[in-house]
Design a protein that fits this description.
Number of helices: 9
CATH class: Alpha Beta
Number of domains: 1
CATH architecture: Alpha-Beta Barrel
Largest sheet: 7 strands, parallel
Mean pLDDT: 92
Order of helices and strands: HEHHEHEHEHEHEHEH
Shape: globular
């Protein structure tokens, strides 16, 4: 996770071996010109922020992946016929594992209902992403990670395990626990850069 980090610090991480970076804000990513790193250093640039409908097209054009996809975004993605202008080709459905009212994403039961109904836009996803509540204990997190991991296996079976391949769970303070529960993509920012600097967006 490279949100709020200046370009020189991002380059240090890339020089140390980072191959993927994640940004939360379109404007910040453009201002820092992180997309130039794709050509110069071969990195993948992922979007991991709240989606706004007026920015859908721009995000699809400049990012390689969208890791915080919601139903509205995925439905529009599925219905649009012209895909020539898209750069993004990997989309993770955000799971609200803690069922927090202030957070985006769908709960595990909601996603199961959509899968049972054969919702067409689910075929656009390459996997799942979840962020557990900050105040959750490790025991609570383990239960949530296990629940999302089981859902991931179900979707991979239903939609095709060759297509649904990514399970993004875990951050700097609990990535080991997430990996134990099947995560194959972790989002580490603080563990690399330290506490976030104030965003300049």
């Amino acid at each position: 996770m490279t949100k709020t980090q200046p370009l020189p610090r991002i380059l240090e991480a890339i020089d140390a071996g980072a191959t993927e970076i994640g940004e939360n804000y379109l404007q910040e990513a453009i201002r820092k010109d992180v997309f130039a790193l794709r050509e110069s250093h071969g990195v993948t640039v992922r979007y991991i922020g709240r989606l706004q409908s007026n920015k859908y097209n721009a995000i699809l054009r400049v990012f390689d992946a969208v890791d915080s996809a919601d139903p509205e975004f995925l439905e529009r993605l599925h219905c649009v016929q012209d895909r020539v202008a898209r750069r993004a080709c990997t989309f993770l459905l955000e799971v609200n594992a803690g069922e927090e009212s202030q957070k985006g994403g769908l709960t595990v039961p909601q996603i199961r209902e959509l899968a049972a109904a054969g919702t067409p836009w689910l075929h656009e996803i390459s996997g799942l992403m979840t962020v557990v509540p900050l105040q959750a204990t490790m025991q609570m997190r383990a239960r949530m990670y296990q629940s999302v991991s089981v859902l991931f296996s179900e979707l991979a079976s239903d939609l095709g395990s060759s297509h649904v391949t990514l399970l993004s769970m875990g951050t700097s303070d609990d990535f080991e626990l997430a990996i134990e529960h099947g995560s194959n993509m972790i989002r580490v920012g603080m563990g690399i850069f330290g506490p976030c600097s104030p965003s300049q967006v």
